[in-house]
Structure formats: structure tokens, C-alpha cells
Amino acid sequence: MIQTEGNALSVLVFFLWVPFALWGAKRWPPAKATSLLLLLPVMFLPERVEFKLPGLPPFTKTEVAVLWLLVGVWLYHRQRLKARPRNNWIRFAIAVLLLGQVVTVLLNTDGVMMGAKFLIGHELDDTVRMVIATTLQSVVPFVLGAAMFRDSNDLRVLLQTLLGAALVYGIFQVIEVRLSPQFNNWTYGFFQHDFLQMRRQGGFRPIVYMAHGLTVAMFTAVGLMAAATLSKAGLQLGRVKPKWAIAYLAVVSILNKSVAAMLYAFTAVPIILFTSPKIQFRIAVAISVVVLAYPTLRQTSLIPVYESRDALAAQFGDERAQSLTTRLVNEEEILERALERPYFGWGTYGRSFKYSLKSGKQLSIPDGEWVNTIGMFGFVGFVGKYLLMLLPIFMVARRLRFIRHKTDQTLLAGLAIILAFSVFDQIPNSSAHYLPYVFAGALLGTCTGIPAQEARRRRMAAEKTSMARRLQPA
Questions:
Q1: Is 48 helix (H, G, I), strand (E, B) or coil?
Q2: Which of 237, 283, 363, 384 could be a cystine partner for 96, CB 3.0 to 4.6 Å?
Q3: What is the DSSP letter of 301?
């Protein structure tokens, strides 16, 4: 069964994507195929189109993109997939993430009555749907990132593709800022979100084909960080000089009218350009610690949330401060509800939200991904999910001394900063795609593969030297 609010093209592109993904996986090198076949669906496939099959979770553009890339990799790059790096801590995070969801279902088979609202309980077959969905949305993107990005060239391809994607998407964004967000409507026959949320400061912020304008703004910020990383490493994308790409994407980021994404980008770019890889990893580790500790800190007075609201109002106006206040209120409501079942959460079906006792209307507005995760899957689900994304930062920070080439260190540090800020953005906002898991997997794969690559080079150089000495006349 297919569900769509749009025209025939909104469905047809999913069927066309299958042969294109298989063709790309066969034709392109592993790193290029993975980069493009994961970025293009995020950028251009329509939101709110679902394929539903009995016993399976709904398949959206996320599941379709990941599934068919996995098939293509299994067909044409199977050896890389089998040779992916393995780590016991990563296995632990995946086990906690998936098994925790099974326990969540088993503990939430009861129906819940909240005034006029009845919330159904889970059934046992929900475990299958939930585990399949999480595997495709989180685990498989991580594994593909770890398997397909293995050396310095793969890392360079990933960052260059991110930059190229951001530059192309910037054109669409500028058009929508001027003409209003209409590309999804023009192409697929429907608007994928609330149009009023795209109005900002007397104009518009772009959404293009993504789930929300905030997602587009963060995508641009990631491209800006990739441009800074390539500039620091002395690399560029074709004839596009990184300094011009930085200037262009900085303007696009301002036009997006997302304060959070601008703060991330304009904080991360100077860090990347003017600090050493070692310091960058320390910053990435510090951000990771804040994210992992945030649920605990949020329950104390150690996070100055209301002081931050006042500072935001003074700097950016009451509209932004009101937005932050709304998020904080909803965080508190969902967190209060989550603490009633803190370890494994309330499950799905909206059971983690609060509702009006009279009308049954949903009162909670889910914004931050972290609090949604705790509400649905408890602190166990939070630990599994965020350890999977953040553990590679800690691992690479410890192994950085084994990577000798400065360029490789620079690229790894830049990717670590990109990953850290992408995950940090899940505190105020909801995660709309799988890219942070890809970044995490790529960080793990390259930090393992680059030292092995350097060892092979040294061994080959030693063998050539030994051979030359043996060939010299006595």
C-alpha cells in the first residue's frame, strides 16, 4: 500500500531510484557511491510518501535509500562490507539500542487512558517492525559508513561530496528565499510541512525537498564545515576554491534564518581553520560529553536554560526567545512524562506525550530528538543511540597519534567536528535523516584504515629499498 499526498511523480521517483541506486553502486567507486547514494535521497526524494507492507514498518525515503544501497554494496562491494572494522563497544551500543526496544515493547502492552484520550498498547509483532526500522535508520547507515570509507582518499571523497551537495542545494535555497518555498509543491504536488513555519523575519526560509527548514539549515552548516576542513587541508573541489565556497555558504546560512545552525557553523569554522587537529578532537570530545550528560544535567539547575532564553532575546529578538521558551516547556513536559517509565520509556503510538484531560488534544510538541528518544525508549534507548553516534569520536581521539600525515589528521578532525555539532543539534531539534550515523561510521572506518594504509606504504617502501640494495653490484 502506498500513501502520498502528492502526484504520480512523488511515487514514481521511488521506483526509479531502485535501478539508479544499483547502477550507481556498480559504476562508482565505493566511497563515491556511498556518498552520492545517501546524500541524493536526503536532498531530492519527497517526504511524507510511505510504502506499507504487512508486518513491516513504513518505508519512507530513508528506508528506501538505505536498503537499496545495502543491496548494491552486497552485490558489488561485498568484500568491503565483510572487511568492515569491528569493535566491541560498537557491538555493545547496537545491542543496547536494539534489545532495549524489544524490552520497551514488552513493557508497554498495556493501554493508557489520559482523560478523554486512549492510547493503545504495543503488540508483540511491534518488536519486529521497531527493530527493522531502527536497523535501517541507524545501524545500517553506520555499518555502511564504516565499511565504505576506509582510507584518506575515501575521507577526502566524503568531504568533497558534502561540499558539492551543499553548493548545489544552496542554489535551490536562494530561489526559495526569493520566491517562497515551492520546489516540493512544483515537483511533487504537495507541501511537506506547515507553510507558516517557513515564514521568518518578514520573508521565508527554504525547505526545498527536506522535512523542515531547520534540516536544510543544518545541511548547509555541515557543508560549510566541510569547506573549512578542505581549506585547512589544502584541498578543493574541482576548480572551486574552498575560501569562495565558505563565503558563499556563509551567505546561504544567514539566508536560512536558523539561529542554531548559524551558531554551529560560525563557531565550528574558526575552530577548524585556526586550531590544531588535537584541539579540535578535544572540543569534539567535550561536545560529546555534554550531549551524553545533557539528560542528567537538564534535571538540575546546571543548564542555564532561562538565562539562555534572555540572552537570545537580547541578541536576536523576542521571536527567537519565544521559540526557545516553547521548546523548553515541551522538553519539561515530555521529560516529566518519561520519568514515569525512565528505563525503557513508553514506546510509540504517541504514548510518551501529554494530552488534554478534557479534549484529548495532544499538548506536547516534540522538538528535541534526545527527549523524544527518552520518552519513547527510556534512558537505555538514549544510551544505545547516542553511544553509537559518539563513540567513534572518543576512539579516534585516542588513536590520532598513530596517524602521521598532517592532512589525514586535519580531515579526521574536521569530520569529528561535523559529527559532534550534528549530534549536538539533536538537543534542540529532531533528527530528520541518517547522516550523523554515516559520519560516525566513516570516522570509525577511516581511523582504523588510515594507519593500516600507512603501514602498507612503509612496508612497500622498505621492500623497494631492500630490492634495490640486492640488485646493486657487489
A1: coil
A2: 384
A3: T
Cell matching residue 302: 546546571
| Residue 176 Cα distances to 42, 179, 209, 325, 463, angstroms | 18, 5, 11, 28, 58
Q: Are 246 and 203 in contact (CB under 8 A)?
A: no
Q: Which ranges of 299-427 would DSSP assign to H, the alpha helix?
A: 305-316, 318-338, 369-399, 406-424
SS3 category, 203: strand
**3-class DSSP assignment, residue 294:** helix
The Cα–Cα gap between 434 and 43 comes to: 12
Distance CA 181, CA 214 (A): 13
pLDDT in tens, 267-311: 999 999 999 999 999 999 999 999 999 998 887 766 666 666 566
**What three-state secondary structure class fits 362?**
strand
Query: Cα–Cα–Cα angle for 337, 343, 346, nearest 5°?
Result: 45
Using CB atoms within 10 A of its CB, is residue 367 exposed (0-12), middle (13-18) or buried (19+)?
buried
Scanning the structure block, which residue is given the C-alpha cell 514515569? 340
Give phi and psi for 280, each to the nearest 5: -60, -40
Task: Tell me how long the chain is.
Answer: 474
Count of Cβ atoms closer than 10 Å to residue 30 Cβ? 21
* Helices of type H across 200-317: 213-233, 242-255, 259-274, 277-298, 305-316
- DSSP conformation class of 349: T
Q: Residue with C-alpha cell 547496537? A: 94
Strand partners, 113: 118
Query: The whole model's pTM is what?
Result: 0.92
pLDDT, one tens digit per residue, over 412-466 is 999 999 999 999 999 888 767 899 999 999 999 998 888 877 666 666 666 666 6
Q: Is the Cα torsion angle 416, 400, 150, 290 positive or negative in sign? A: negative
pLDDT of residue 296: 87
User: All 3 cell numbers of residue 300?
Assistant: 538540575
Look-up of cell digits 515530555: 334
pLDDT of residue 319: 61
